[in-house]
Every structure is written in structure tokens, then in C-alpha cells.
Amino acid sequence: MAGRKGSFANIVRELLQAKGRASVAELVTAVISANPEQVAGRKVRPMVQAVMRDLLRSGEAARISEGEYRWAARKEPVQLRQKMWSILRARRVVSIEDLMELTGASRNYARSWTTMLEGHELVRRLEDGRVQLVNDPVVMPDDATKAGKLRAIRLRKAFDSLCQSMEVVAKAVKELGEAMP
Amino acid sequence: MKLNPAFVKTRNVRNFEVLMNGLDLAEGEGRFGLVYGQAGRGKTRTSQWYAAGNACVYMRVLSIWTTSELDFLCALARELGVLTPPRRKATAFQAVLDKLITEPRAIILDEMEKMPPKFLGFIRDLTDLSGSPIVFVGEVELIPYLQAERRVWSRVFQQVEFEPISATDIVFYAADVAGLQLDKLAAGILAKSSGGDFRLVRRDVLALVQMCQGKGTKSVNAEMATIAAKQALKGA
After folding, report:
1. How far apart are CA A68 and CA A114, in angstroms?
2. pLDDT tens digits for range B94-146
3. Closest-CA residue of chain A to B3
4. Contact B7 A64 (CB under 8 A)
5. Cα(A109)–Cα(B161) distance, rounded to whole angstroms?
6. Count of C-beta atoms within a 10 Å radius of residue B233
7. Per the CB 3.0–4.6 Å rule, which of A3, B29, B146, B168 could disulfide with A10?
8. ipTM entry
9. pLDDT of B46-75, one tens digit each?
10. Residues of chain A neighbouring B8 (CB-CB closer than 8 A)
11. Does A20 touch chain B (CB under 8 A)?
12. Residue of B29, B52, B54 lying closest to A103 (CB–CB)
């Protein structure tokens, strides 16, 4: 959960995120050195401790030992195509049925996803229908087809909206023209 | 009748999930998990399924790394998303550690028992310094392999043995993937003939699907199970 930009809680959050793990003392020192004006004349340690309590409660931080914490970005659900990518990388050769079984994807989605990878020349289709990873870029490639489709939909919507606006303007101009003496 | 590829949560899979949840409880502490059992019981498939669904790192240990800790570390770094891992041992280790600290994830190492015991030293350092759990998956030889290193064995917080697939699991599996209704006796016959090997059960269920298609039924009795078990190729 991102806090208000520049707030004390957000400063502590960003420091912990950047460091990965830190003790309260380290965070206090870092806060003072990074924002001397903001904390001048204030008791920083209890403020940091209060923020850490909130971060622990929200699951953004985890306690390693007494007074020492680490950043713990909350787990977000893994996307289906990311799951398929993990399975493909782990097994190297997979069938559509493997992807369906291990990720819960539908047959159509698994098939179109592997076809997309074929287009990127990352996999090749074997004679028995399975696909083999032949080029491993580690990071999952973007689905350019889907991005293209979304771009086309956005353009179509913008065009329709523009046409409607033009019709309204044209109608108004016509009405104004007729009203003029 | 069609086979519907479905991942069935057998008792072993549920135990695996309990192990992973148990490791989560000791967050921030160096710790290991241990998953062992005979071949064909679904350890690897379960590990891959869990890793994909929970953003964990799954890595199958390759024999070619036996002589090189650097190759092992580079492969691990790549699995963690370091695209060009450093080609020196200490810096590769640091790259893995940095990645684990900024993005804590559980690591599942399959067939770790292939590696010389000296590898366990820096793997212990990795889990201690990063606080990320590491799960070893392998056959029964994995236990003495880990026990030989006392400091490693003492960090094994959770362990699960993958047991032979039970008759109950076979009933659910056949129902989920093919909609077959196995009676207890039929499931017992398949469990016994397969010796608890999941791959053989799958093959038997396939044979049953064909048999049921021919007979136009979805109910499987002991006699059909015996025929299917006899038909299937054993000893694979």
C-alpha cells in the first residue's frame, strides 16, 4: 500500500524497501540523514517504531529478529501466463495437457500462448504436438498480439468518441447558422 | 469420454502445501525443507506446480555442475532473474543473495543429492543471510546426505515423505480426469498393481477410459481394474 508521498511513513517505507533489511537504529539514522529539516527537534525512534508496527500489520515488512526487519512485498496472485512460463522453463518440453494440468489454463489459451512463443522463436513444436523451449530469455516475453489488439481497440474507441464529438459540433454549428439573422 | 488434464491434490500434495506453509511461519530465519520419496510418486510435478503458482524458484540440479560451484550459482542467479550473472564465485554468490534479499522467494532444489556435500555450505549461507527458505527434493538418499552435515540437518524445519498413491487418491484422480466411478475394490487393485507409482496409475486409468468407452459405462469394477492393470506395461 503506497502512502502519501513525502509523509514520514512513506520515507521509512522507501528506506526499508531500498535497503531490503534494516534495524530500527539503522532506519533512524537513515531518516535523520536523509531528511534533517523534517525531523528536527522530534523524537524519531518512537516514530520509526510506530511506522514499523503499521508495516508489520499490513504485511509490508517482516520481523527478522528483535528490532530488525526486512521488506516483504505482499504476495500478489501469479498471472496464468507467468505460471505457464515457469512450467515451460522448468520442464523444457511440455504438452498442452501439461500446461492445462499444472496451471489450470484452458486448452485454447495454452495453445494460443504457445503459438505466440513460436512467433517469438522461443519454442519449437515437436511432431507429437509438444513444445520445446529452444531459446530461454529467462524473462517472460510480452504478448505482442494481445498488446496489438488492445491498441486497436483503444484507437477504435478514440475514433468513435471523436466522430461523436464532431457530429455534436457540426449540429451546433448548423443550429447557430440557422439562428443567425 | 475425454481425459480432462487436472491436477489432483493427493495426500502428498496436501502435505507438500503444509510443509511450505510451515516454512513460511519461520520467516526471516535460515531454514530448509525436505521432500523425499521413491521415483514416480509425483515429487517433481508437485514441486513444479507449487513453484509456478506461488512465484517460487524451481531448479533441477544438473550433474554437470558437480565440479563447479560457480556454474551452480550462475544457474541459480539466472533462475532468480539475474540475466547476466557475474563469472566469479564470490560475486555470483553476492548477486544471488542481493536478489533474494530484495525479492524474497522460496527456492526448490530438485535432485540435490547429486551434488558433493561441500555445496551445502554456501546453500546454508544463502538461507541464513537471506532468510529465504530452501527446499530439497529428492529420493531417500537425500536424508543421509543432509544428515552428514550437522549444521544443515539442524536447519531442516519441515520434512515430507511422498508415500505411494493411496486407493482414495486413485478414486478422486479417476473421477477428476475422466469422470470414472471406481469402487473401493477396483481402486485397491490399481493401487496394489502400480506399487503406488503415479505414472503407472495414470496409464491404468487411460486403459480404463478406453475400456469404459467400449462398454458405454462410467462405472469401474474390480474385474475391469484387474484387466486394465494387466494390460498396462509394467516396470517402466
Report:
1. 45
2. 999 999 998 889 999 999 999 999 999 999 999 999 999 999 999 999 999 99
3. A97
4. no
5. 35
6. 8
7. A3
8. 0.89
9. 999 999 999 999 999 999 999 999 999 999
10. none
11. yes
12. B52
Least CA distance to B6: which residue of chain A? A101
The owner of cell 494440468 is A101
Q: Which residues contact B206 (CB under 8 A, 6 or more apart)?
A: B3
Domains and CATH numbers, chain B: 11-161 (3.40.50.300), 167-231 (1.10.8)
